[in-house]
C-alpha cells in the first residue's frame, strides 16, 4: 500500500507506507525519545514563546501533536522543511507544563532525516560542507587570512581594523601554535586523528554518507594520509629511541 504525502497535486511519486513506518520507528526508538515526549495538553505555550514561530511557518506544538498522535504522513511532511526552522534554543522545553521538549524531538527528527538521506537534510547541510572540510583538514574552521575586505564587505569601516600586518602580529603571540595564518591555530596531528576516530565510532561518518558521499570520500582520503603520516612519525620516534638506547 502506498500513500501520497504532501500536496495532492504534486507529480512526485507517493511514499510507501512501509517507508513512513520505518522513519517513525527510528524516531520513536531513539534513546532520548521517551525523555522528550510525555504527552500534550495542546496549550500552545511552546509555540507562543518560540522565536522561530514568529518568523516561519513553524509550530513546536504541531510537532509534538504529530508525534503524539503518530500521524505518519504529516510527520514525513514536517521533515521536509518545518523541522529545519527550529533554532534549538529550547525555550519550549523550559516552558512546557508537561515537561516535553519539542526542540529535543526536532533534533531526533533531524537525525532521522539525515539517516534516511532525505532531500531536505542534504539541502540544509550543504553549506556546512566547507566547515566540515576545514575542520578535518586543519582542525579548525576559521583562519586569520580569511578576514579580508573582500570577504567581509558588509563590515563597513570596522574592516580597517583587520588590515594590520596579521602575519607579523601572529608571530608576536607567545604561544607557538598560533604562529599561523592558514588556520586559527596549529592542531596536533594526533588530535586531528582522534577527532576523526570519534566521528567514525559514533556514526557521524555514516550519516555524512547519506548527505554527501563525495565529501565523505574526500575527508576519508585526507585522514588516510594523516594516519599514514602519524604512523611514519611513530616509527621514526621508535627508531630514534632504539638508536639512543644502543648509544647508551
What does this molecule look like?
- α1 packs across α5, α9 packs parallel to α13 and α11 packs across α13.
- 21% of the residues are buried.
- This protein starts with a strand and ends with a helix.
- The protein has 248 residues and is an all-alpha fold.
- Strands 1-2 form a two-stranded antiparallel ribbon.
- It is built from 13 helices and two strands; from the N terminus they run ββααααααααααααα.
- It folds into two domains: 115 residues, Orthogonal Bundle (Fumarate Reductase Iron-sulfur Protein, Chain B, domain 2); 122 residues, no CATH class.
- The chain is extended and about 75 Å long.
Key phrases:
248 residues; mainly alpha; Fumarate Reductase Iron-sulfur Protein, Chain B, domain 2; two-stranded antiparallel ribbon; 13 helices
Rg estimate, integer Å = 24 Å
Helix content: 40-55%
Which residues form runs of ≥5 with pLDDT under 50?
A: none
How are strands sequenced across the largest beta sheet? 1-2
Mean pLDDT: 87
Domains counted in the coordinates: how many?
2
Quote the beta fraction.
Answer: under 5%
Alpha-carbon distance between the termini?
Answer: 79 Å
Strand element count: 2
Q: How many distinct helices?
A: 13
Q: Strand count, sense and closure of the main sheet? A: 2 strands, antiparallel
List SSEs in N-to-C order: EEHHHHHHHHHHHHH
Structural class computed from helices and strand pairing: mainly alpha
Shape: extended
